[in-house]
Amino acid sequence: MDSQSNPLHILVFPFMGHGHTIPTIDMAKLFASKGVRVTIVTTPLNKPPISKALEQSKIHFNNIDIQTIKFPCVEAGLPEGCENVDSIPSVSFVPAFFAAIRLLQQPFEELLLQQKPHCVVADMFFPWATDSAAKFGIPRIVFHGTSFFSLCASQCMKKYQPYKNVSSDTDLFEITDLPGNIKMTRLQLPNTLTENDPISQSFAKLFEEIKDSEVRSYGVIVNSFYELENVYADYYREVLGIKEWHIGPFSIHNRNKEEEIPSYRGKEASIDKHECLKWLDTKNINSVVYMCFGSMTHFLNSQLKEIAMGLEASGHNFIWVVRTQTEDGDEWLPEGFEERTEGKGLIIRGWSPQVMILEHEAIGAFVTHCGWNSVLEGVVAGVPMITWPVAAEQFYNEKLVTEVLKTGVPVGVKKWVMKVGDNVEWDAVEKAVKRVMEGEEAYEMRNKAKMLAEMAKKAVEEDGSSYSQLNALIEELRSLSHHQHISQE
Ligand code: UDP
C-alpha cells in the first residue's frame, strides 16, 4: 500500500473531561508527528478548546482534523449545554451525563462509516467503542489516562476483594497479589466497591463493562514510561495478560524539537502568563509550594480556611489554585490573610497554567489531588509532592508516589469522597509542607524527583522506552491497516 496516498488513519475519541481530553490531544499530536492522519471526535461545545490547543501548538499539524457529533443533553435529562463533566451542575446529574455518553454510540458509528479509519483509540468511558470498531473490522485501543499502578491495583482489588476481610472501614488490609505490600483502608476505596445504593451500583456496572472491553479490545495505551513503574507495567502485561503500549509522558515527546511548555491546556488561564512568570522569577529556586486539585475537585469553605491557615503557618511561598462553590458564599479566607501573605502567596481563582508553573525552577513542591495527569506533570517537573487524593483512582496514585516512588508525603486524607474533598486540618497541611520543603528527608525526595524527571526525558528521546514503544505501535497498526486494505479489495 502506498503510505503517502493512504496514510494510517487513527480516530481518537476523548472523554469529555479535561483530565481525559488534555492527554488525548497530546496523544493525537504524537501520532500526527509520526505522519499518521488523525481525526479527533468530540462534541460541539468541546471542540473550541481542542482547536485552541492545536492552534497554540508551535508545531502545526495539517494531518489532524476534528469531527463533531451531537451531545444528547436534553434526551438524557441534562441541562442544555452540559457537554463536559466540568459543567455538570451537581452530583445528582452525574448518572444523566453517563446516560448521554451511552447515547453517543450510534452517531459515533455513523461517523466511523463516513471516516473509515484504520483504528480507533477511544477513552475507557466508551466501552461500547470496542463493539463499534468490531462492526467495521478495525481494532479498538483503550486509553485509560491513568498509571499502571492504579490499573493493576484496581484489578487486584476487584479480583481478590481483600477489603471484605477486615471488620471495620478503618482497618488496614493489603492489596492481594499487588507487588509492594500496599495497604489501604475501606474508607479510601471508590463507592462502586463499598456502597450498594443504585447510583454506586450503576457505576460498578459501568466499570465492569470497562474492564470487559479492555480485555476484548486490541490493547491499551498508557500515558506512563517504563522506568517510572516497571514492576507494575510488567504485572499488567504478564500477570493480568493485557497488551499495552506505554508511550508517555505524551506531553514532552516533541519538547526538544519546536514544542515549548504550553501555557494553554484545557481552558484559558485565569492569570496573565507573563505576570505569573514575573512573580515566580522573583522567588528563589525550590522555594514555592504549588497547590492545585485538578479540574473537578471542590472544597467547602471550611476546608479552604484550613488550607489557608496551614499554608500561612508553614511560612513558605505558595501559589494556590482555588475554585469555590458559589452556593457556599464568599467567606473562605481567614481575615487579613491576603494582606499578611502579600508577596509570599499568589492565589489563582479559577484555572492555572499548571505545566508552565510546575516547570519553573522556583517551584519546590506540588500539593496535588493525584489525578494522573497532575502526578505525571509533577514527575516531569522533578518536584516532590504532597498527596491529597479525593476521588476516582487518586488514592492508588497516592500510594505510588508516597510508597513506591517515595517522592512525596501524604497530607493524611482518610476518605474517598465524590468531587468534594474530605476534611484535613490546618496543622496537617503545615506539617506536610514543612516535611517536603525542609531538612534531610526533603532533600532526598527532591533528588529522587529530579532523577525521575531525567528518566522521563530519556524515555521519549530517540531509542528511549516510550519512543521505541510508540514506533512499534505505529508500525503494528500500519501493518494491520495494510491487511485491512487488502481484505477490502
Ligand atoms: N489543569 C490546569 N490548570 C488547572 C487545573 C488543572 O492546567 O487549574 C490541568 C492539569 O495540568 C492536568 C489536568 O488539567 O493536565 C487535570 O488532570 P488530572 O488528571 O490531574 O485531574 P482531573 O482534573 O482529571 O481530576
Automatic annotation (TrEMBL):
InterPro entries: UDP_glucos_trans, UDP_glycos_trans_CS
EC code: 2.4.1.-
Top-rank taxon, per record: Eukaryota
Gene from which this protein is expressed: 11421705
Organism: Medicago truncatula (Barrel medic)
PROSITE patterns: UDPGT (PS00375)
Keyword Kinase: no
Taxonomic lineage: Eukaryota, Viridiplantae, Streptophyta, Embryophyta, Tracheophyta
Family in the record: Belongs to the UDP-glycosyltransferase family.
Protein name, entry field: Glycosyltransferase
Keywords: Glycosyltransferase, Transferase
Any one GO molecular function term: UDP-glucosyltransferase activity
